[in-house]
Predict the structure.
Amino acid sequence: MSRDELLKKLTAVDFYLIDLQLYLNTHPTDSEALNIYNNMVKEAKELREEYQRMYGMLMANNTSKMPWQWIENPWPWQYSFNFDLAGENG
Amino acid sequence: MWIYDKKLEFPVKIRKADPRMAKVIITQYGGPDGELAASLRYLSQRFSMVTPEAKATLNDIGTEELAHLEMVGTMVKQLTKNATIEEIEKSGLAPYYSDHDKAVYPVSASGVPFTAAYIQSKGDPITDLTEDMAAEQKARSTYEYLINLADDPDVIEPLKFLREREVVHFQRFGDALRRVQDYLAEKRVFTMPDMSRVQGIRYTPNAQVSPFAQNAPNAQVSPFAQNAPNAQVSPFAQNAPNARVSPFAQNAPDIQTMPSVRDSNIPAPNMPSNVQGVPDMPNMNNRYDNKYDNKYDNKYENKYESKYENRYDNKYRR
């Protein structure tokens, strides 16, 4: 998978988790949602590991190649960091 | 603590410079209904919040707002990056440029610097959660006005995402508020401030019960009690030195049927459940005269406070 494809997939899965987390906070006994959450966590973990193996660190609590990869450009606020959504929403 | 995730919650990739939009979008960075105010509001209010659901909701939405702050800052940065001085002058961004160049600084669209006066942290969970729901609606409105002003899909898409999140947050705060209302209603505790500390007021056994209790016993079992913030017990009840359990606790609706008790694995306390609905007043007063003493009081304190404490502290602990 290309960097942008992988980042897009990870962003989507991570967002799914954020939204479910908020839902579970006020619905802690919804077993269906909890089940989906637990499965998504595994998927997100695999995608994150794949991304970090191929394209550098997403979080500083990960191992780094030499030299220290955390400081690598681009940062998320830079144009070139982000993947393109143009055309997908009309 | 927080750990940074080196990506945006939703991508921001704006091809075309547009300082006119930067000038208005900055208001969601440092304006009255912006993401900085939202984050600071929720992350401050969580310290005095009750119920595990509401604490988690404030903590996590406060955190998500930081991700939104980053997205808004990213939009402002990308909208101004390739703008020429002429474009900046024409768009009205010149005053901002004079103070900040193309840096991102927390101000409103009209140039007012960020202030903590935009937020409250009131210590009353009903008050705080109600403010939070209003805040989410104000932010949603702002995003709609910004979408009205925008014409570039690269700008509109992230604005639509942010707008949608305000709607979801409003729902989650509503869920949390309902749960807090149940929690505050179920205890049926009346409290008084520590009157022994107030000069000129002698602390007598009778003063332990709210002076309003005798005059308005129906307020406790009013069908509106659960929804009226004023009828709620202070979240500090357990910590207040003179907190006493109301002698009317016996007349509270059958505790077995309360949602929180039903949903928990902890058996409900053994309470007389024969008295339901609105008790009649003379009987209430008699009951009070006969039964209310310190011994009775301690019994309730031990029975309820420790039980509820344990449940709320431990139930969801992993």
